[in-house]
């Protein structure tokens, strides 16, 4: 099933395309955690400055600072690239819908960034962590590394660095690592090692391992945009439905039993960081 799901990714990689849109400052194959000085557009040394009202500090609708329960860090797959209304249609927002259906009311922030590699996540993670820290951080990264055939050792080192950076800033937060897959045209040895990197990091660092985000969505034309890479709104709904059984117990356990209530709707920051608070 995974092999079939990744056929579209393999075709894009074989044509020399990255598949997931690049953001400024993201390097190619050699973009490693050691390159912390290269400018990510959403890091303090990049082109986009933090908002004056305290972006990155867990701001909630109305401009007041407040706690964020769940932070989603990821690529265009989390950002919701290509959707008409990613703030309502991307899979983190759909996860919020599922939580509400079960009487849970977490506040979430979507910090997805198109084109980001795992090295970019290392550079950016400290900057996007809210203060106070969230109860749960969901990390989705690596898809762009797979498309670039990044050495698995570098991917694994970057995943470890992201997890440890979160732990340093948010020692009490739960961390969930989303499994990603490499295109099958890179060979069985590479794709298996790539997949196992997530399992190994989850075990060694003691974090939760979530399943492959695009299971049942990648490679399905009706669930993807014309590029064959990025899911449609329905694709994102299916992603959330697939991930919810693994996320539900974490939401309950790690976000004040999922019962923190907060009035408000949706605030969208200029650089697409966002806070989503439960409705009335």
Task: Break the fold down into its secondary structure elements and pairings.
Blueprint lengths: L1 H4 L1 H8 L55 E5 L1 H4 L6 H4 L1 H11 L6 E5 L5 H11 L7 E4 L3 H5 L4 H18 L4 E6 L8 H18 L2 E5 L20 H22 L11 E3 L5 E3 L4
Parallel strand pairs: 1-2, 1-3, 3-4, 4-5
Antiparallel strand pairs: 2-7, 6-7
Helix pairs in contact: 5-10, 6-8, 8-9
Characterize the structure shown:
- This protein is of the alpha/beta class.
- It has a single domain, classed as SGNH hydrolase (Rossmann fold, 3-Layer(aba) Sandwich).
- It contains ten helices and seven strands.
- The protein has helices at residues 2-5, 7-14, 76-79, 86-89, 91-101, 118-128, 143-147, 152-169, 188-205, 233-254, and strands at 70-74, 108-112, 136-139, 174-179, 208-212, 266-268, 274-276.
- The protein has a seven-stranded mixed β-sheet, with helices on both faces.
- Helix 9 (188-205) links the parallel strand 4 (174-179) and strand 5.
- The radius of gyration is 17 Å and the shape is globular.
- It starts with a helix and ends with a strand.
- The relative contact order is 0.20.
- Mean pLDDT is 77; it is low at 1-5, 10-18, 23-65 and 257-280.
């Amino acid at each position: 099933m995974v092999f079939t799901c990744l056929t579209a990714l393999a075709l894009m990689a074989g044509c020399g395309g990255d598949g997931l849109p690049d953001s400024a400052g993201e390097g190619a194959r050699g973009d490693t955690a050691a390159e912390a000085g290269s400018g990510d557009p959403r890091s303090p040394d990049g082109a986009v400055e933090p908002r004056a009202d305290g972006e990155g500090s867990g701001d909630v609708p109305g401009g007041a600072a407040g706690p964020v329960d769940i932070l989603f860090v990821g690529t265009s797959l989390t950002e919701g690239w290509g959707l008409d209304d990613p703030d309502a249609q991307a899979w983190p927002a759909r996860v919020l819908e599922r939580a509400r259906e079960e009487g849970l009311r977490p506040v979430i922030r979507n910090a997805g960034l198109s084109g980001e590699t795992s090295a970019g996540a290392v550079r950016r993670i400290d900057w996007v962590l809210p203060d106070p820290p969230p109860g749960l951080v969901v990390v989705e990264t690596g898809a762009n590394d797979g498309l670039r055939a990044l050495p698995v050792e570098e991917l694994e080192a970057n995943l470890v660095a992201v997890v440890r950076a979160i732990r340093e800033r948010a020692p009490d937060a739960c961390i969930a690592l989303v499994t990603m897959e490499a295109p099958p045209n890179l060979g069985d040895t590479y794709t298996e090692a790539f997949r196992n990197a997530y399992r190994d990091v989850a075990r060694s660092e003691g974090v939760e391992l979530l399943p492959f985000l695009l299971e049942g969505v990648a490679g399905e034309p009706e669930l993807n945009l014309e590029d064959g890479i990025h899911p449609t709104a329905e694709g994102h709904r299916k992603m959330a439905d697939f991930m919810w059984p693994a996320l539900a117990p974490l939401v309950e356990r790690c976000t004040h039993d999922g019962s923190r209530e907060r009035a408000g709707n949706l605030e969208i920051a200029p650089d697409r960081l966002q806070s989503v608070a439960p409705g009335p």
